[in-house]
Amino acid sequence: MKRIERLALLKVEKRPVPSGHVILSVSILAILAALVVVAIFFASYGTSPFRAYGAIIKGAFGSWQGFSETLRRMIPLLLCGVGLTVAFRALFWNIGADGQLLFGAIAATWVALFSGLHGPVVIPMMFLAGFAAGALWGVIPAVLKVKMRINDVITTLMMNYIAMYIVLYLIHGPWKGPSVRGYPLTDIFSPAAQLPTIGNTHVHWPTLLLGLFLALAAYIMLNRSKSGFEIQVVGENPHAARFAGISELKTTVTAMLTSGGLAGLAGVGEVAGVHLRLFDPNQISMGYGYTAIIVAWLARKNPLAVIVTSFFFGVLMAGGDVIKVNLGLPFQLINMFNGVIMFFLIGSEIFMRYRITLRRK
Amino acid sequence: MAPDELVKDSRIQNDAVATGTAGNPEYAVQLKGIVKRFPGVLANDGIDLDIKRGEIHCLLGENGAGKTTLMRILYGLYSQDEGKIFLNGTPVNISSPREALAQHIGMVHQHFRLVPTLSVEENIILGLDEGTGPFLNLRRVRAKIRKIAKTYGLSVDPGAKVWQLSVGQRQRVEIIKALYREADILIMDEPTSVLTPQEVDQLFTTLRTLVTDGLTIILITHKLDEVMRVSDRVTVLRKGKVVNTLETSRVDKPSLARSMVGRDVVFRLEKSPIERGEEILEVEELGAEDDRGLPAISEVTFDVYGGEILGVAGVSGNGQRELEESLTGLRRATSGKICLNKKDITNLSARAIADAGVAHVPAQRISMGIVPNMSIRENLILKQYRHPPFAKGLRIDYKAAGRHAQSAVQDYQIAAPSVDTRAKLLSGGNIQRLILARELSGSPYLIVAAHPTYGLDVGATEQIRQVLLNQRESGAGILLISEDLGEIMTLSDRIMVMFAGEVMGIIPSEDARLGEIGLMMAGTRHEKD
Description:
The complex is a heterodimer of chains A (361) and B (529). With 361 residues, chain A is an all-alpha fold.
């Protein structure tokens, strides 16, 4: 009897449909909880958590240089994150944005260095090729899933490594630049293949504008278009989709063309706007494709909300550099932050589906 | 004690009872003023309910009347917003099933809560601490299960895995599970909806034995026959309120139906004699396989005319599902031919068949007929979203969809707070109304309706049957697959009986006798004279 009473202090009840402010407050609480947990780790390194978070905020907002780093990180997260909301709505677990991003980077590099194109067409062609390459890399697991019931999480994840090794092969082999003295790098892009940036920063604004525009476009597509309707039906109830004559293959392929394509665009931005060449895949992507999963999840699969969440993770990534440099803490603390926040986000879903209250006396 | 003091004293007591501050120990369960709100829905609106010890008490009401919600409150799955619960006169606070069990309340849910891969005995002791330290004492468990099973005629093998058991056997496991936990108040939620007639008989015998032994049983149902057959008293709920509580021996079916639905119920539908029209569907020697790739139907040949209802009778699992799905493009026909209005539609896609004018009311209404997480507005355009007025170029005109939904909600009397309510929040009857509203909106030539009133309450059943009859009158051909023989006999013009995937015969319904159909359902071919 004692045990029963202790257990019953919490009352768990199903919530039929969580309201907007429940979702928002649960998400914010999840982030706060993650901040508290990471604070413990800061403290364990002997750094006051307040000082650490202060440094992150100051680093990300304190100067134009710092803020520009935030924006630079935000761009790939925004593009990948928006794409992932589309895939997730179709209940396709695209863990492969990182590989799709790399494929976009490869295609853009090919256009920039080997296509023989010149002048103002180069940049648009790089974006087109990057989109196509990312989309192709994304569509393969979509077809495998629908046609052969192969698990999408595993294929998309594994294809990240394939993409990574293709990049490594290219920079160590056929695409190694003649002018780089044996380093595994391609040559630097010609000015026609370089994106304009704001002032002296790495903020390649055309990609940023493209990302903002595509967030809006994806929102309209998901909520107002026929394809969006189909994606929603397939994601929510594949049996009903079959019953209504909606093709699972066509719908999943559409979702993954979009998702992979947008990640490909992010890859174009990284090589054409920041690095200006293809080199170490881990530095081109920096895990953007993985962090974007959390970005899309935190945005609750809403592409417009991705603008906010990608900015937030931009702050964290830029702040990660700052705590490494200024406080001598390992950058991995920020990666850990990603893990902790994902943990709390998934854990917090129970609070959206159930109302949990203290027992009335 | 002076007489006026006595009066005063009893008044005080009455006041106490009336204001819900004290319970009456005469009753096993008393619920007082129970209120439960869900967003947009008042599920229980001040419910008072007294359950006597040792009775079978039916809670009768349509889907969405609040029966299950009320019992989930008693079982601790929900907590009430207002009101009090008394057990044997003592106020109690039940906030979890574990506490309900500690108060000796057990519940058998409509959808069983068993782990298929575990054995019967493992399921029964799940969550209990049986044995010493980390070790189970299965011998003692088994003995106790055997004793319960023997006492109440609940035969089941304790060592069998649950996935091997029939639905009726699984229900017995659920009952034993509650008795094993020493429940003396047993709540049963729609226990007969999954049982064959024989299993229902057996269940009711068990329930009778249980109350003779002193248990109290609360039975949730929407079937009038069951109330009349098994209960001692009945409480009718409607729209979250108690209509009345009556002794079963003093009521009859029509008056119960009236208080449950709130108006008179037609038990016999008016089916006008009409000329049948052109041949709409022609099926020739159709064959199809089941999900495991084994032949499920073979050489099925029949036709359906406009203005006609062809009833398909048969015990479930005799090829009805495969027939339904191959006609609507959800399953590949392995042989034979299907023609709609003389055009071959064999193995066309589900979309092409729907576009050709075939409406489909699927047997699996929740898992296939709707998208639970999407709104009524969106569910109503599930098939028509590609066509005007809903499609405008690449865009969907949700305003037009909203107007369409408004009128569908009115025409089909779908009870919902708004057209943006998610379909999963609707009751079974309203989900079926939604599906009919969608499927019939394009004036189809052929309607394939599978178990259209299965598990629905009286009001919804009546309405849905009437809708089908109206479609018949306006010239549609209807293929009605149902396990409810009464329904088949009332609605059909001709009756086709299926057994083991084959047609045993097709007979005009005016010549049909129940006995003959029963024989055909068991595999006897109808001899043509």
